[in-house]
Amino acid sequence: MDRHHYETFDKFGNETFIIHLDNGRGFGKHSHDELSILVPLSQCCRVRKSTHLRLQLLAKEEYQLSRLMEESLLRDRLHPVLIQPHLEAMDRRLRLVLQVLAVCVEKEGYSNVVEVDDHHRAREARGGRDTATHRNPGHR
């Protein structure tokens, strides 16, 4: 059952109310990667440059997505929110997304897949210089 499923009990007639039960599956099963969710990406083969760069950054050892998420969740009152296998699944799934994008780039060319967005368009207009200060990849 997913979280959109609900049941009613005939015994109470029309005097019922909704109870939302969260099964905690927001991150899915850590041992199963649902590859069908990547189909739209593989079909359209388009991504913003800022998104592509962020995904590549989060795949690097020093900015590893699972480590940043774990550090962020340490401050949560419900810690641990995610168990280690779920954190590892995040890194594995990130690699799958990057693999799909790599196939797109190989098939269609970088400029046809990675779209320069406003931030990078302005940066290129300044000759590649970034006037903003460097920020932690976890900050917006």
From TrEMBL:
ATP binds at residues 7, 22. The active site is at 2. Residues 121-140 are annotated as: Disordered. Residues 121-133 have a biased composition (Basic and acidic residues). It is found in: Golgi apparatus. It comes from the Eukaryota. GO terms for biological process: enamel mineralization. Residues 1-114 form the FAM20 C-terminal domain. Keywords: ATP-binding, Disulfide bond, Glycoprotein, Golgi apparatus, Manganese, Metal-binding, Nucleotide-binding. One of its GO terms (cellular component) is Golgi apparatus. Mn(2+) binds at residue 22. Its main location: Golgi. GO terms for molecular function: ATP binding; metal ion binding; protein serine/threonine kinase activity. Its cofactor is Mn(2+). Belongs to the FAM20 family. This is FAM20 C-terminal domain-containing protein.
